[in-house]
């Protein structure tokens, strides 16, 4: 599932292409991917413009010129592609939105994900349960520690809990734990002050590095996009079970933690 770096990469890149262009055509191939009747959804979008693209946690919010919001949550398997009618991807699309005479934004794999059209108030309410952003103005080391310290349960379970810190999922939770030299399964109640300090630094470094590298999505956003997917090569442990740890040389282990797969290096990640 796309996480903060992937969605932030999409936000940055889309903002270069589609802002202030009129929506000239909307095609809905799967009505379960939207929240309105198809005819109403198309009518509400035609002629509108996206004036700003915002990311909140794992969501993208397309701010329309009439104050409404299109909220995208890709969920597992969802991707987007920005092209034209001549270089459309050879995959089934659930929604297609044309901007001006050149760009078409293709929404692919929205079997679990969705694109909902909401008022500003509805959008705010739908995301109100989300926790603090890792790079938000309200976040600092002391806030980070206060969010995790005193909780019970495993580190990974807390990191992927969107109501605590928003935007981190399976991949980057494991990468953050690796950078902090802690196992994903370590119990929060066993951590010391220096552990929380390393975790905070690790969170910022891992997410920043992955965002700058374009996230781990394999499909480029446009035909000329050479950035998207660069973070896949930066993963030290995630999806690398059986490989050699680049830090200590031990064999990376794939395990299961509360129904989620987890990866760690037993030689240099500790479980206090």
Automatic annotation (TrEMBL):
<dbReference type="InterPro" id="IPR012319">
    <property type="entry name" value="FPG_cat"/>
</dbReference>
<dbReference type="InterPro" id="IPR010979">
    <property type="entry name" value="Ribosomal_uS13-like_H2TH"/>
</dbReference>
<dbReference type="InterPro" id="IPR035937">
    <property type="entry name" value="FPG_N"/>
</dbReference>
<dbReference type="GO" id="GO:0008270">
    <property type="term" value="F:zinc ion binding"/>
</dbReference>
<keyword id="KW-0227">DNA damage</keyword>
<feature type="domain" description="Formamidopyrimidine-DNA glycosylase catalytic">
    <location>
        <begin position="2"/>
        <end position="136"/>
    </location>
</feature>
<keyword id="KW-0479">Metal-binding</keyword>
<dbReference type="GO" id="GO:0003684">
    <property type="term" value="F:damaged DNA binding"/>
</dbReference>
<dbReference type="GO" id="GO:0006284">
    <property type="term" value="P:base-excision repair"/>
</dbReference>
<keyword id="KW-0511">Multifunctional enzyme</keyword>
<dbReference type="GO" id="GO:0140078">
    <property type="term" value="F:class I DNA-(apurinic or apyrimidinic site) endonuclease activity"/>
</dbReference>
<keyword id="KW-0234">DNA repair</keyword>
<keyword id="KW-0456">Lyase</keyword>
<protein>
    <recommendedName>
        <fullName>Formamidopyrimidine-DNA glycosylase</fullName>
        <ecNumber>3.2.2.23</ecNumber>
        <ecNumber>4.2.99.18</ecNumber>
    </recommendedName>
</protein>
<comment type="similarity">
    <text>Belongs to the FPG family.</text>
</comment>
<dbReference type="GO" id="GO:0034039">
    <property type="term" value="F:8-oxo-7,8-dihydroguanine DNA N-glycosylase activity"/>
</dbReference>
<keyword id="KW-0378">Hydrolase</keyword>
<dbReference type="InterPro" id="IPR000214">
    <property type="entry name" value="Znf_DNA_glyclase/AP_lyase"/>
</dbReference>
<keyword id="KW-0326">Glycosidase</keyword>
<dbReference type="Pfam" id="PF06831">
    <property type="entry name" value="H2TH"/>
</dbReference>
<keyword id="KW-0863">Zinc-finger</keyword>
<dbReference type="Pfam" id="PF01149">
    <property type="entry name" value="Fapy_DNA_glyco"/>
</dbReference>
<keyword id="KW-0238">DNA-binding</keyword>
<feature type="domain" description="FPG-type">
    <location>
        <begin position="236"/>
        <end position="270"/>
    </location>
</feature>
<keyword id="KW-0862">Zinc</keyword>
<dbReference type="Pfam" id="PF06827">
    <property type="entry name" value="zf-FPG_IleRS"/>
</dbReference>
<dbReference type="InterPro" id="IPR015886">
    <property type="entry name" value="H2TH_FPG"/>
</dbReference>
<dbReference type="InterPro" id="IPR010663">
    <property type="entry name" value="Znf_FPG/IleRS"/>
</dbReference>
